[in-house]
Specification:
The complex is a heterodimer of chains A (348) and B (242).
Chain A (H helix, E strand, L loop, with lengths): L3 H31 L1 H32 L6 H19 L8 H31 L8 H22 L4 E2 L12 E5 L2 E4 H23 L1 H11 L1 H6 L4 H27 L1 E2 L3 H16 L4 H20 L10 H15 L14
Antiparallel strand pairs in A: 1-4, 2-3
Chain B lengths: L6 E12 L2 E12 L3 E6 L5 H9 L6 E6 L2 E2 L5 H7 L1 E4 L11 H8 L6 H14 L1 H5 L10 H13 L5 E5 L7 H16 L3 E6 L2 H7 L2 E6 L2 E7 H6 L1 H6 L5
Helix pairs in contact in B: 3-6
The chains are: A mainly alpha (348), B alpha/beta (242).
The structure holds adenosine-5'-triphosphate and magnesium ion.
Amino acid sequence: MLAALPRFSQQVNRVLTWVVVALFLIWIVGNILSAPEQFISVLLLGISLGAIYALVALGYTLVYGIIELINFAHGDVFMLGTMVTITVANGWLGLDGSQAWYVTTPLVLVTLLAAMAFCGGLNVAVERVAYRPLRNAPKLAPLITAIGMSFLLQNVGAAIWGFNERPLTATGDSIFPADTLFSIGGVPYRAKSLIVVLITIPVLLALVYLVRNTKPGKAMRAVAQDMDASRMMGIDVDRTIAFTFALGGALAGAAGLLFVMFQTSTRFDLGFQLGLYAFTAAVLGGIGNLTGAALGALLIGLIQAFNEGLSWHTPGSDWTESIIFAILILVLVFRPQGLLGEATADRA
Amino acid sequence: MSTNGTPLLELEDVHTYYGTIEAIKGISLQVREGEVVTLIGANGAGKSTTLRSIQGINRPKRGRILFNGKDIVGHPPHEIVRLGISQSPEGRRLFPRMTVLENLEMGAFQRRDRSGVHQDVERVFGLFPRLAERRSQKAGTLSGGEQQMCAMGRALMARPKLLLLDEPSMGLAPVLVERIFEIVTEINSQGTTILLVEQNALMALDVATRGYVLETGVVALTDDATALRSNERVRKAYLGLT
Ligand SMILES: Nc1ncnc2c1ncn2[C@@H]1O[C@H](COP(=O)(O)OP(=O)(O)OP(=O)(O)O)[C@@H](O)[C@H]1O
Ligand SMILES: [Mg+2]
């Protein structure tokens, strides 16, 4: 009887999982049938959102993969990335969407580099002052510090950029061209949505290449697998961890730029909500797994877009946060290793 | 290999702690160039801690560790590897999700000479033909013996002047144990000085030039290997002979 119990609960798990998946599919199919064009336009929107979440989710997963820390301050680093983007692109470079593309493109790239460098540097500094001194302390200590760091960065954001919503430009326009590329059922697909995806994909590919094939990437994988053995191989563990934070921060900076170009505004507390979404994406994909984080982010982006854009039996945007929280909890309870995570899977 | 007498490594009154526990309590020892020196002792005597202190993984609270006459206490491990000390740690500690070849390449992390690294991979495969067959296999799926070979090969990839081996025979079948000790001799004859930690005192004293007996964090006894083998106390406590 006792021996049968775990198997029984496993079966309950499996049945529950299938019920949830089946309900989800019915809902999707119902929406496709009731409004196919609306579905496609929402799908495209979800892909752009997912791309941005992927860049943030990777920062969680990279850091978790190497030091098993959930860096709660990561969402706030991203938020500061959106703020820095506004200051550099709009404030310093004077971009407001009215310039020609050959002026905008190089200056946006300059801003991108600035945001990536800023967030990368900031993340390294956070690691240096807040996490490294606690490297050998019990796991709870750096976790609490990370939460504290999150509040600190939020307050820094509020102190410099204020408590109100910050628009990207005075007119509320994006700096990315808002031209309509095509329309589906009256809903326009705008150039900025495509640009978000077009910038994200090469960044993701570069990251995978870096982790798989370069020396710092191999050092990251080694440190993730065995820190002391890495030291014995002559790897500078501190530097490798700092490099990981730099990388995660740079990705958050890129995400910050894309987000604010896409949504055209930001706020000091954005990092909490978006960080939560991205963290959920990382857990959903299997924390520590790069491909998983990107996939999880795509799913979260789609779910958010579906929930906020579809109309057949859809809870609506008031429920987005609850739904994503529910996904986080369900994954943690029923599949803590995530969709792609397996105990033995190669995380890179 | 003949020894020329210069001390390559010298520990002077080294004390290392884990928190408040003093694991080694004033160890002094010497390894001369070309030697195989063995460190034997019961569980918990402080053998691994001694190797970890030399490598810079644990920082001694007191004492000096001279490598080529230079005090290396406080140097980070990656610098110590660059100076010429590498180790095959207790429990092998391979990177389980990397292949055999990748593990070997990690051993050469500090080196910049690609062609030399490539040559050394071939040299390791020459020493351990089994590894050559399994070069693309994930290290985590190797057998215990293969893992041990991979760990030793990985340590050699740094082209160390001093090789630290922590219980290379642990958990291996008797034939393989003999083979491992043959390889220790072979590596030494190719010019690498070796500090060998062993539970298998009989075998260790066979391949070593000199030995140190550690007891609860201090050196209880030191002598030539042959003398230790016939020492009454060593025979009783470590060789299981009377
Ligand atoms: N990480 C640690 N934290 C606390 N104490 C430790 C730690 N590692 C080792 N010790 C203690 O230090 C002492 C020496 O340990 P060490 O591992 O150096 O022994 P050893 O001679 O290598 O033993 P063995 O033959 O079992 O490998 C032991 O008393 C051990 O309990
Ligand atoms: Mg030991």
